[in-house]
């Protein structure tokens, strides 16, 4: 199941180690997650639902759903998709009962970290926010619950569009390396494998409570917080849509492009937006046969250049089609699709079956706003921006003074716009705190012009409409 040859990527695996799944030794490598190692060994069933005992497998691979929860070294509810494998680890199906001794020290006080600005999220928006806030004179701390920086960039093998200064012509994986290098060479404190579980206000100070490696409590104290927690996969309702072998598109990219693990042999993709189209040729690069892409809309939603490339590779794109059900016992064995009419109802006699072991759901994302809701930021549903988002101004500041947003958390768009929003949020936070001088306003205005230009095409029209609704709500 491991990919040894790839036309673009080379996988530098760490030291070989051994983990134990139900007592069975499993080969793993330092630097890969538990779920990735289990997938490499052909283990896709990670858990069972508590009531109906239905099998559960990896779905999002970024720690935002509960499908991969397992018991690790006696500790239940461990998110195996973002927890690194360690030599000698003991992994079992999830048993939601705490052991008597889980390694906590009695009366241990939380570590306290002081900064001007706390950035939550190490993807393109968070990295740019941290870099620019630091350059504007702020003391910055950056936290991310994943074991590496880069967010969605670490799995993007395609080259970006846009201007040269916005990384045009560079693959996402390389952009992640460039931004991480920029962060590391600055005096920015980075905390990986650290989950932000709450944002609290104490006068002019913000307190972010974080948990590192599931058990170390850390208090981050600052005067401003930038929330760049990204988004999570949407799904679609169909029969047996919880079977192992059904993944969000990002999870498949994580397995293939980050850890070099083949997620299956034969795939069906649901959704013909840019993500679904790009995923098709990434799967083919990894040696996976793509049977078809199904799209409920009457036309594809992604760029023509991506669709043309997929068609040249022999993959049919079936518009006005939807998936009806997945079949299989413990995992996906086949998929049933059908053509739909103008009322979105299946047309009799149009069913088709595909023998697949992999179904990719690429129907879009929704912003991760849970921390913002908890912090008291005003939330509004804006369809054009992907769902519920925090109301914010042109400087990315929310209705709670001192809390900013950037990237997919502020509305679903491209990585390029995420980086520009991160730049605005980082500088704006430093300006609001009185750290940066007024010369930095010019940098914000330049980033705003770049955003306006990037959104001027047909794919940005709905985003502009959504932002207009946000600003109207703020007034």
Give a structural overview.
Keywords: Oxidoreductase. This is Sarcosine oxidase alpha subunit. Residues 15-97 form the 2Fe-2S ferredoxin-type domain. The chain has ten helices and 28 strands. The mean pLDDT is 94. The protein is 24% helix and 27% strand. It has 475 residues and is an alpha/beta fold. A five-stranded mixed beta sheet has the order 2-1-7-5-6, covered by helices on one side.
Helix content: 10-25%
CATH third-level topology of the largest domain: FAD/NAD(P)-binding domain
Radius of gyration: 22 Å
Named CATH architecture of the largest domain? 3-Layer(bba) Sandwich
Residue stretches low in confidence (pLDDT < 50, at least 5 long) are none
Which CATH class of the largest domain? Alpha Beta
Strand content: 25-35%
Into how many domains do the coordinates divide? 3
The count of helical stretches stands at: 10
- The end-to-end span amounts to 54 Å
Major sheet characteristics: 5 strands, mixed
